[in-house]
Design brief:
- The chain is elongated, with a radius of gyration of 36 Å.
- The chain is of the alpha+beta class and 564 residues long.
- Residues 1-5 and 277-283 have low confidence and may be disordered.
- The chain contains 17 helices and 18 strands.
């Protein structure tokens, strides 16, 4: 706040002091009596505020060489009174300045919170841009706004969102592309001078314009431009708010771009894998042939089948898109083969076989049950620990996997026609195992298995695990009890989970007894010890959420999972 630009505020403070503040009036009265002089005070327009202004001696009331009123007196002693009044007004001005700054900070913090919450629900850049403009319009006086993004593939600046009428928008964007691109590359914020606005044909329908860059780390994605068609001057505080909005939005837009890029790469990867898969369909796992009671592929006939009680395991390479984004297609292929080369022997060592490779993972079958499957899971994680040491020496990112498994019956057989045959498995067990693997991402667990796997274990004491409650996976109605094998975690996290196992079990018991407040406190203790305990964090959030919810009498704590 600058006094030279705020005459109204200073005059208002003076008037308030002398008309509403009894203490200040009393102070002036007492000073007047002690100094033996008559006193009068007016505003800068010489309108009386206090006492008699028809006195011979006059002094200006001023702060920082800015006059905001006058003081009148019968002798020179009124100068002392004028200095005291100016001191009081100056202090009140400081209070208002601090209050204004605090209000501005609160406004900015509240905006950041609201915007973060809103854009967290969006997964595409355009929706995030629209949300950012709407939030800007809510807190800043604007009639127009646009979000521009630099398309790195085409090198052109594209408008992804706008509010307010813009004559000939497409033509203006085309003509202004070099300017927009230059502003994006500079990455600075600015309130555009009115003269420059009127000279620009794309902006001259506006009276005020400012912009801020969409910056992430050391690069700029685009710009947010705001304008007002009415008489207005944007302030530095408003530019700061716009810069904050742009900063919040930029990270979300980049994440959305990476997500879309990931989808595109995933589709491209799936197409490449499908070609490989079509070529590999001629081959059938030898273990599959043995399960049919045959020794050679040539002995297999169309219609051969067998029903078996097995454990099905799905293995997925975590963050495969991130790992592969800097690899050429050939490197991708070599990477997948190197991974499978390390995992395949472990599966076979534990009496299992890989039924199908899935590009960034595989499906394996263990005819002897879940004991073998869990042993293989732990050995795979041990092998990856060694492998990641090698990758670290080569400055490569570590490889992590998620494993899900289910036990049950399935039919293995040969299907097709006389010209084309293929190995096939038909079972709900396979679908459920795939869903469980998907849930391992949700729960942040390396190894998940079901109650049927637990029942199938010959020696339950061989492994350490935690109960994660009942879930209903996509496409199912009946709940499945879920368990996390913690032996597959890195040593520090595994030690933490072992040390807090009893506390976790207490938290789960409180949770299923609907004592959500106590459950939240219990899980908070675990998360405080190690924030990387994702399952504890998940149940902490669930418990905290359910504290304020109305819970039905027949609530069993079943989590419905509507995703694969």
């Amino acid at each position: 706040m600058d006094p030279s630009n705020d005459a109204n505020i200073l005059t208002k403070i003076l008037k308030t002091f002398l008309s509403s503040s009894a203490k200040v009036r009393k102070l002036v009265d007492e000073l007047s009596k002690k100094l033996g002089c008559e006193v009068g005070i007016s505003n800068i327009d010489e309108e009386p505020i206090y006492g008699n202004i028809n006195l011979p001696i006059t002094y200006d009331l001023e702060i920082n060489n800015f006059i905001y009123g006058k003081i009148y007196g019968s002798d020179q002693s009124i100068k002392t009174i004028s200095e005291i009044i100016s001191m009081l007004v100056s202090k009140e001005l400081d209070k208002k300045r601090i209050g204004s700054e605090v209000l501005g900070l609160y406004r900015e913090i509240n905006m950041i919170y609201n915007l973060s919450e809103m854009i967290s629900e969006k997964i595409d850049g355009s929706s995030i841009a629209v949300t950012a403009l709407n939030e800007a319009k809510r807190i800043i006086d604007i009639t127009h706004g646009s979000v521009f993004i630099l398309n790195e593939e085409t090198g052109l600046v594209e408008q992804v969102a706008r509010i307010g009428h813009n004559p000939n928008p497409d033509k203006n964007i085309t003509n202004q592309n070099p300017i927009l691109k230059d502003l994006i590359q500079k990455g600075t914020s600015l309130i555009i001078p009115s003269g420059a606005i009127q000279k620009n044909s794309a902006l001259n329908h506006l009276k005020a314009v400012m912009y801020a860059p969409l910056k992430v780390k050391h690069r700029t994605l685009g710009l947010i431009v705001l304008g007002n068609e009415n008489d207005k001057d944007f302030t530095a505080a408003e530019l700061k708010l716009l810069t904050t909005i742009a900063l919040q939005s930029a990270g979300a837009i980049e994440s959305a771009q990476l997500y879309q890029k990931g989808l595109k790469e995933s589709r491209e990867r799936e197409q490449a894998i499908m070609k490989i898969h079509k070529a590999s369909q001629k081959f059938v796992p030898h273990e599959f042939i043995k399960s049919l009671g045959k020794d050679k592929l040539t002995e297999v006939a169309l219609g051969d089948l067998v029903e078996r009680e097995v454990t099905v395991m799905f293995v997925d390479i975590r963050g495969f898109t991130t790992l592969s984004e800097n690899m050429a297609p050939t490197e991708n292929f070599y990477f997948i083969n190197a991974f499978n080369k390390k995992m395949g022997p472990i599966i076979r060592k534990n009496e299992g076989f890989i039924m199908q490779y899935l590009g960034d993972g595989f499906m394996a079958i263990f005819p002897n049950g879940s004991q073998d499957a869990l042993r293989a899971s732990l050995e795979m994680h041990e092998e990856l620990s060694v492998y990641n040491i090698e990758r670290d020496l080569e400055n490569r990112k570590p490889v992590k996997i998620g494993i899900g498994m289910q036990s049950g019956k399935l039919i293995m057989g040969i299907t097709g026609d006389v010209e084309r045959m293929d190995a096939a498995i038909i079972s709900d067990t396979v679908n459920t195992a795939a869903r469980i693997e998907g849930l391992s991402k949700y729960y942040g667990s390396n190894i998940l298995f079901t109650d049927l796997c637990m029942e199938n274990l010959v020696d339950k004491h061989e492994f350490n695990y935690r109960y994660l409650g009942p879930v209903v996976v996509q496409g199912k109605v009946k709940p499945i009890d879920l368990y996390e094998c913690i032996d597959g975690d890195e040593e520090k996290l595994r030690s933490h989970k072992l040390a807090t196992l009893k506390i976790f079990e207490e938290g789960m018991e409180l949770y299923f007894n609907k004592e959500f407040a106590m459950a939240a406190v219990t899980f908070q203790k675990i998360v405080k010890k190690n924030p990387l305990d994702n399952a504890a964090k998940l149940f902490l959030n669930r418990s905290a959420h359910l504290i304020t919810q109305e819970i039905e009498d027949d609530w069993k704590g079943v989590a419905a999972m509507d995703f694969k």
